[in-house]
Amino acid sequence: MNTTFPLLILVLIFTTNTFSQTIADLKLKPKEIPKGGYTLSDGNICVTPQACTFYNDIETYSNIVGTVKSKAIQNFKNKADGGSIMYFEFENRFKGDRFLQGLLWGKEGQPSDEHPEEYLVKGKFLIIWSFHPDSPVREKSEAKIEALLP
Questions:
Q1: Are 131 and 116 in contact (CB under 8 A)?
Q2: In whole angstroms, what is the distance from residue 106 CA to residue 67 CA?
Q3: For residue range 123-143, what is the model confidence (pLDDT) as tens digits?
Q4: Which pTM does this prediction carry?
Q5: What is the sign, positive or negative, of the torsion defined by CA atoms of 48, 53, 54, 55?
Q6: List of residues 6+ apart from 70 with CB closer than 8 A
Q7: How far is CA 120 from the centre of its chain?
Q8: What is the pLDDT of residue 82?
Q9: 3-state secondary structure string, the chain?
Q10: From CA 2, how far away is CA 111, in angstroms rounded?
Q11: Each residue's pLDDT tens digit in the chain (150 positions)?
């Protein structure tokens, strides 16, 4: 019984930390932006229009993907690279995997040179990277999110 209580406390602490993340925690901070002349941009600069359309019209798709609690976008550019990271937090778990794959990639069903977007679903969070595959911004963001949302 003595070991059960501390173990329960550890489980509660781990569970609370895992599920208490916010979109603000997931976004890249200025000091985390890779070197190479990257700047934040105000305009959405998705590689393909499908990703930005999904972000801008997410409410239209709510009966398919679920109700969005909050969303945010970060846009980065430098001389050779540019793109957007879209963050969504849903009221419940994201449920539109098949729909999103079709919207982003079409018949291919996976990223391609023409449609390089990638996404990750972790519980109530959906993150879409609209960058070319070799983008340092995408790689930095993916690593951060994987560490925060195991």
A1: yes
A2: 23
A3: 999 999 999 988 999 999 999
A4: 0.85
A5: positive
A6: 23, 88, 89
A7: 6
A8: 93
A9: CCCHHHHHHHHHHHHHHHHCCCHHHHCCCHHHCCCCCCEEECCCCCCCHHHHHHHHCHHHHHHHHCCEEEEEEEEEECCCCEEEEEEEEECCCCCCHHHHHHHHHHHHCCCCCCCCCEEEEECCEEEEEECCCCCHHHHHHHHHHHHHCC
A10: 51
A11: 555 544 445 444 444 444 579 999 999 999 999 998 999 998 889 999 999 999 999 999 999 999 999 999 999 999 988 999 999 999 999 999 999 999 999 988 899 999 999 999 999 999 999 999 889 999 999 999 999 998
Cα separation of 83 and 60, whole Å? Answer: 23
Q: How large is the C-alpha radius of gyration of the chain?
A: 17
- Distance between CA 132 and CA 111 in Å, rounded? 10
Parallel, antiparallel, or unpaired: how do β-strands 39-41 and 68-77 relate? antiparallel
Residue type (1 letter), 117: E
Distance between CA atoms of 115 and 103, rounded to whole angstroms? 10
Which amino acid appears at position 8 of this protein? L
